[in-house]
Amino acid sequence: MTLDTLDTRDEDTRVPVVIVGAGPVGVTAALLLARRGIRTVLLERHQDVYPLPRALVVDDEVRRILQAVGIDEEFAAIARPGNGLRLLDARHRVMAEFRRSGHGHHGHPQTSMFEQPRLERLLRDALARHPECDLRPGAEVTGVGPDTMGPVRVTYRDADGDHELRAEAVLGCDGAGSRTREAVGAVWEDLRFEESWTVVDVRTPAAVRSWEGVDQVCDPHRPATFIRVAEDRYRWEFRLGDGDRPPLRELVAPWLPPSYDGDFEVVRETGYTFRARLADRWRAGRVFLLGDAAHLTPPFIGQGLCAGLRDAYNLTWKLARVLGQGGDERLLDTYESERKPHARHMIRLAVAMGWAMTGGQDGAAALRRRLLAAVVRVPGLSTAAARDLSPALAAGPLVRRGVRRGLAGTHCPQPWASADGRRIRLDDLLGGSFTVLIAVEPWPSLTALAHGLGIRAVPVADLGDDGTLAAWLRAGRADAVLLRPDRVVMDLVPAGGRAFTDAPAWASLLHTARSPVPSERAVAKSPSRSTTR
Question: For the chain, which terminal residue's Cβ has fewer other Cβ atoms within 10 angstroms, N or C?
């Protein structure tokens, strides 16, 4: 069923998409859908943004998502670049630095430090500017299930009583205790990490020792994490053993000036249990899980919020195409098949980092610490490890791979380009649609395929960048690439080749009623380009 076939009776209860939870993941999903013309209702049980910081770091890939949402300039004003991660031994001597400073592959600072409440306020402000988004605070969802009049029925309760909505799709962005996960019938897969930590947020004018990145103290008896949150706000996290409860000033003393006795306001001190879990299924029909409803990760590589925003970016363009453009329902199957292996990889990285850095509590802990101390001293390893934690997406219907892995499943870089005499980021220039980037002179069969699918074909020479795109294509041995709306390479034409790896297969997924799909025979018989350079 598409939006055009919706029953118009009782229109106030019918909506294309219901989003359960209006945290950063839910609001980001709503904004991305709004930019594609899809209306949403967001049901949030709290009345306002949670006032204390939780997530503190995002990477350049997620900054690119915030750019797609339309708030990157505002976010840049509240964020500051970070230096990356530093490992300290129990005496606070530097063991290794994993620097992630400067701009990365995605055209933004590789590490950005911020306060989550300020990000959420920016997202809520953007939400208010989009009439497609209807935020309903104080709404407690009481049920999610199939409906005889449409794919999904959602019931909720607020101060005015009980209500119901009928939706074409439901996105469960309602956190670790997700009611939507129950509706999907998902259970947690335990990835074998669970530790209790004490988290302390402090405000102080003291000259706290900070390298403007994350400090991880690799002490098996009292591992710790430290990060400067804002100008005068800091966070410490400690794993304390049974009976180990020294005064807070003693715990943080290594970072403070000697004998400091000035102002030291504890904004929050609370206990958290860090877990590694993955829902065994992320979808049931048109009900989807995103963010902490689908996965939980320890915080050691700063990827908790990042993973949820990647979920939203991956799913929303596919859902919008199915609901609004007649895209094949199989597009929605690729959400879990692409995001779940990626999330598993990132969680395992965080678990590995956690066990290596904190030492763990088993008999092999001392051996792991000695191996870590040796490994991080391998020349160039720290630099290589810090470049990009995010792996390529697995092969599937929307990531076509031939014999060679190549660029498929990776993100296109984002340099500055030129348009009408002004500098503009590549994604803003190309817009949120499919694009073919071409490194050589376009050839007729490629042009015909792009035209038949309504896809823009752009020679990189016309973009006015600094040569980044041509060098990237050359290094990937590709004459052309098909970019998805999320800027992942879907397919490519190998250097010297004549066609995409599997155009007929992916073309059938993307077709719309307004864009006939070129047949395999038509693609094959289109005149091939000359191989003359």
Answer: C
